[in-house]
């Protein structure tokens, strides 16, 4: 019984080993290169696949997704003999797994060396300034050269990016100084523009303020002049309506003269013609009053009978009335009219209008 079971168990184990050895499950986005007796047979696709045990074997497992390859920074000499370190990043994808395995021994190392040589050729034809400012141009040239070279390897270069360009330390220091100078220049220009705009706005505000103040002064002057004109018109109508005596007006005019001299800076007067006429009017008023004043009559003398009757007595040549050569005192405190008028007729300093003011 045991002799019969042993061969069955051995055959079952061999069958299980062969079945398990022939089944291969390939994940998505992967490709398996199968060789039979050392020769390429097929490329397994994602899913369940069967191979011949002991005859077929998996040579390579490839990832066909887009991959990133970063090379170490490489020293490169520019056209103006300056050494710069350039760090690149490559994005590639395997399009032909068989070519990637059998056309090149190590495609990653081949890509790295090809990138270095291509980068030196491209940077060697540019100066430092162009190298620093022409990254897009460098990326395009690198991608074109690498894509042409790696096409036969079953690899497509999707993108090539310059990650960093490091110039020498002395160049960095000079560039930093230049950048600081440019920043200071821009700051100075912006500050000057700000001050200019501020001054323009301030001047515009001052101009508007002056215009508004001038308009306000103009309106105020117009209103004051209108008010004064109305006041003068009312006074004029009141005076003419009441038929005021010119002598009273002249007297009122003289009463206002002390008020004209109340100011501290009024050291010089300009006497108008109305003042002279006012003084003349007041003087004539006092003269008329002195002429019209009546004195008491002199006592009568007794009549003597020495003369013949019928003859009229001779008139006494003595003063019997007012004498034109003398002016009696008015009822003004015993002072003559000339003393009252004298202060009014006192000379007043008159400005010489012909002289120019100093």
Could you characterize the architecture of this molecule?
The chain is an alpha+beta fold and 358 residues long. Helix content is 51%, strand content 17%. The protein contains 10 helices and 9 strands. Helix 3 packs across helix 5 (135-150), helix 7 packs across helix 9 (273-292) and helix 9 (273-292) runs antiparallel to helix 10 (337-345). Belongs to the band 7/mec-2 family.
Task: Give a short synopsis of this structure.
One of its GO terms (cellular component) is plasma membrane. The protein has 358 residues and is α+β, with helices and mostly antiparallel strands.
Set down the secondary structure blueprint.
Layout: H1 2-22, E1 23-26, E2 30-36, E3 39-44, E4 47-50, E5 56-63, E6 67-70, E7 74-77, E8 83-94, H2 97-102, H3 107-124, H4 128-133, H5 135-150, E9 155-166, H6 169-242, H7 246-255, H8 257-260, H9 273-292, H10 337-345
Antiparallel strand pairs: 1-4, 2-3, 2-5, 6-8, 7-8, 8-9
Helix pairs in contact: 3-5, 7-9, 9-10
Rg, Cα atoms, Å: 66 Å
Mind telling me the CATH class of the largest domain? Answer: Alpha Beta
Indicate the CATH architecture of the largest domain.
2-Layer Sandwich
Order of helices and strands: HEEEEEEEEHHHHEHHHHH
* Strands, count: 9
Please tell me the overall pLDDT: 76
Number of domains: 4
What are the segments in which pLDDT stays under 50 over at least 5 consecutive residues?
302-358
Q: How much helix is in the residues?
A: 40-55%
Keywords: Membrane, Transmembrane, Transmembrane helix
Organism: Raineyella fluvialis
Region (Disordered): 286-358
Pfam family, one: Band_7
């Amino acid at each position: 019984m045991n002799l019969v079971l042993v061969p069955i168990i051995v055959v079952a184990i061999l069958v299980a080993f062969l079945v398990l050895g022939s089944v291969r499950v390939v994940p998505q986005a992967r490709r398996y290169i199968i060789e039979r007796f050392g020769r390429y047979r097929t490329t397994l696709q994602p899913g369940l696949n069967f191979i011949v045990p002991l005859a077929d074997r998996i040579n390579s497992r490839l990832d066909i997704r887009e991959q990133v390859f970063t090379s170490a920074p490489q020293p490169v000499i520019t056209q103006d003999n300056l050494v710069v370190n350039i760090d690149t990043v490559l994005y590639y994808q395997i399009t032909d797994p068989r070519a990637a395995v059998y056309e090149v021994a190590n495609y990653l190392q081949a890509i790295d060396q090809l990138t270095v040589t291509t980068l030196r050729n491209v940077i060697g034809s540019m100066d430092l300034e162009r190298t620093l400012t022409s990254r897009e141009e460098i990326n395009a040239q690198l991608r074109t050269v690498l894509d042409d070279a790696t096409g036969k390897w079953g690899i497509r270069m999707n993108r090539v990016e310059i990650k960093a360009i490091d110039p020498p330390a002395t160049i960095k220091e000079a560039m930093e100084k230049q950048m600081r100078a440019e920043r200071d220049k821009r700051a100075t220009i912006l500050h000057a523009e700000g001050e200019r705009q501020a001054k323009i706005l301030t001047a515009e505000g001052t101009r508007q303020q002056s215009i508004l103040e001038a308009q306000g002064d103009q309106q105020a002057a117009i209103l004051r002049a209108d008010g004064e004109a109305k006041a003068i018109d009312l006074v004029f109508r009141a005076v003419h309506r009441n038929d005021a005596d010119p002598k009273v007006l002249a007297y009122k005019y003289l009463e206002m003269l002390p008020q004209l001299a109340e100011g501290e800076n009024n050291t010089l007067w300009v006497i108008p013609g109305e003042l002279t006429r006012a003084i003349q009017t007041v003087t004539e008023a006092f003269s008329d009053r002195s002429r019209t004043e009546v004195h008491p009559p002199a006592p009568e003398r007794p009549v003597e009978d020495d003369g013949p009757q019928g003859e009229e007595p001779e008139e006494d040549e003595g003063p019997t009335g007012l004498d034109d050569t003398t002016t009696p005192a008015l009822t003004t405190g015993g002072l003559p009219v000339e003393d009252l008028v004298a202060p009014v007729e006192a000379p007043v300093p008159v400005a010489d209008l012909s002289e120019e003011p100093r």
